[in-house]
Amino acid sequence: MARQKKSRKVGKIGISKTPSNVRKPSEKRVRKHLGKPAGTRNNEALTVNQDHKKVNKDPRHGSKKPVSLFAETKEQKSATKKVKYFSPTQELAAIEQDPRLATLLDNIEIGKKIAREDQHFVDLTLARHKVLCEMLGLTDDIEEPDEQSERQTDLYAQFEAININDFKE
Fold first, then answer.
1. 123 located within any domain
2. pLDDT by residue for the chain (169 residues), tens digit each?
3. Which segments show compositional bias classed as Basic residues (predicted)?
4. How far is CA 107 from CA 8, 31, 111, in A?
5. What are the CA-CA distances from residue 90 to residues 9, 11, 99 (Å)?
């Protein structure tokens, strides 16, 4: 046997237990991955797998709601709000009392030019007014002259057409 040198270290007495902080040789340390692995730029298999992951899209992504291409003004927003009326008489009264329509009609009577949107609003409102008047039986038609009044106007026209000099002898 070989000779052992003297040392101040105390040798092991009994069987040592493995402490919890000592790793077994079979367990390897798991390292943090920093960055992408080498060669991912040219690896097609990984890019194909990533495309499959994108199939499960978030349902909130994107909207199917149509978007107006023109900016709406305050007047247009108020015009788009539709008010439901209980009867045609209420709707007709609301149209007749509309201050915007009244000012636009006054401007048209004066001869001022109005915007295209305002003209469209006037046309739609007047068309609806006409429909409501027909529904309710309200007509502003000028009464057609009766046959008797036509005869009277014809007789008067004949009387005016008479030349007095024809009757003188």
1. yes
2. 688 888 887 777 766 666 666 666 666 777 887 877 777 676 666 555 555 555 556 667 777 888 888 887 777 666 556 677 888 888 989 999 999 999 999 999 999 999 999 999 999 999 999 999 988 888 765 555 566 666 667 778 888 888 888 877 6
3. 1-11
4. 115, 81, 6
5. 109, 108, 16
Residue 104 CA to residue 108 CA, distance in Å, equals 6
Residue 101 domain-assigned (yes or no) = yes
Domain with 114, as residue range(s), is: 86-136
**Which residues, 6 or more positions from 108, have their beta carbon under 8 angstroms from its beta carbon?**
114, 122
> Residue 53 is which amino acid?
K
Tokens 């291409």 map to which residue?
Answer: 69
Q: End-to-end CA distance of the chain: give it in Å, rounded.
A: 185
Give the whole-angstrom CA distance, residue 6 versus residue 162.
Answer: 166
User: Which residue matches tokens 């499959």?
Assistant: 52
What does the alpha-carbon distance between residue 134 and residue 141 come to, in Å, rounded to a whole number? 11
- Which among 95, 106, 79, 160 has a CA at the least distance from the CA of 129? 95
| Domain count within the chain | 1
pTM here is: 0.38
